[in-house]
Amino acid sequence: MIINLTQHTATPDQIAAGVVDLPSELRAKVSALLTFEELPDRITIWERAHALSDVAQGIVGHGPKVSVMIGGAPFLMGSLIAAIEGWGLDPVFAFSRRETREETLPDGSVRKTSVFRHAGFVPA
Description:
The chain is an alpha/beta fold. 39% of the residues lie in helices and 30% in strands. It has a 5-stranded mixed β-sheet with strand order 2-1-3-4-5. It is globular and about 55 Å long. The mean pLDDT is 94.
C-alpha cells in the first residue's frame, strides 16, 4: 500500500501501482497542511510535518511496512521525510515521464502538448 499524502488525487496509473487516496475529509486536511500562505518558521514546518505524518500513521496503524507518496513545498520535505520515517513508514516521490507531441495546425503554427505518465516511485 502507498498512501497518497499529496494535494492531488492519484492517477489511474498510480492507483494500479498501489496508491490509495485519502477520504475527502482527510485529503482536505492534508491540502491545508501542505499549503503555506505566509512565510513559515522552523516550528511551523516541523508542526505541519508531524501533523501530516500522523495522518498517514492513522490510516495504517501498526501493520506491515507501508509507503507514503509525498510532494509539496521543498522546504517541507526534509522534515516530512523524518516525521514519516519516525512512524516506520517509507516516504516516496512519484516519478513521471513526459511525453511530448507536436502538431502542425492549419495556420502553420505548432501546438506542443505534454502528458506526464507515472513511471514509478523514488525513495525519499
